[in-house]
Structure to design on (189 residues):
């Protein structure tokens, strides 16, 4: 599964990522603005909550996140206290996704800030997982399938694509996705 199967996808360590989120949040709090960080409600929201500094300001979440937070807490997962959101005025918004690695993704979404955060494997993670298996044949699905198949084939592996009924997770503009694929000499892990 190669949603982020291009060499440009390299995730920063969580400590760096959360330091950036906390700086952004603290700057907004100092300016009297709420910080709205958009993300998936299941999993990613809880990962973010586990890494932010709750001493900066109260944490307010959507009801979908709150319901899942309660389930996580009931299962013994420590999360900071959260409150339900109502309408928040004068907010700075951001989006947390692996897609924020793409130049222009934040601008197209009209977000004030973008944070690169994904639970999918990045390029080094994918290459490491493939190498760790010792597999000689790799079947690739989702994401930049042709790029990854080409790269793996150039590395001496038997690689092929597998298409699912769920479509492709690559960037919205296929031309942009293709343009991001560097020459094979530059695609090493």
């Amino acid at each position: 599964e190669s949603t982020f199967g291009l060499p440009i996808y390299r995730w920063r360590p969580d400590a760096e990522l959360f330091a950036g989120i906390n700086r952004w949040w603290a700057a907004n709090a100092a300016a009297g603005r709420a910080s709205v960080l958009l993300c998936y409600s299941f999993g990613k929201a809880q990962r973010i909550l586990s890494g932010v500094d709750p001493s900066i300001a109260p944490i307010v979440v959507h009801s979908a996140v709150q319901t899942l937070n309660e389930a996580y807490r009931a299962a013994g997962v420590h999360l900071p206290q959260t409150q339900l959101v109502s309408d928040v005025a004068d907010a700075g918004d951001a989006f947390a996704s692996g897609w924020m690695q793409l130049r222009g993704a934040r601008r197209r979404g009209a977000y004030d800030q973008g944070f690169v955060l994904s639970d999918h494997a990045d390029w080094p993670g994918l290459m490491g997982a493939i190498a760790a298996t010792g597999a000689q044949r790799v079947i690739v699905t989702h994401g930049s399938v042709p790029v990854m198949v080409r790269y793996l084939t150039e590395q001496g592996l038997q690689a092929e694509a597998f298409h699912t009924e769920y479509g492709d997770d690559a960037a919205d503009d296929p031309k942009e996705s293709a343009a991001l694929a560097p020459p094979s000499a530059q695609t090493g892990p």
In short: Residues 14-30 form the longest helix (17 residues). The first strand starts at residue 34 and ends at 38. Residues 120 and 128 are 13 Å apart (CA to CA). The radius of gyration is 19 Å.
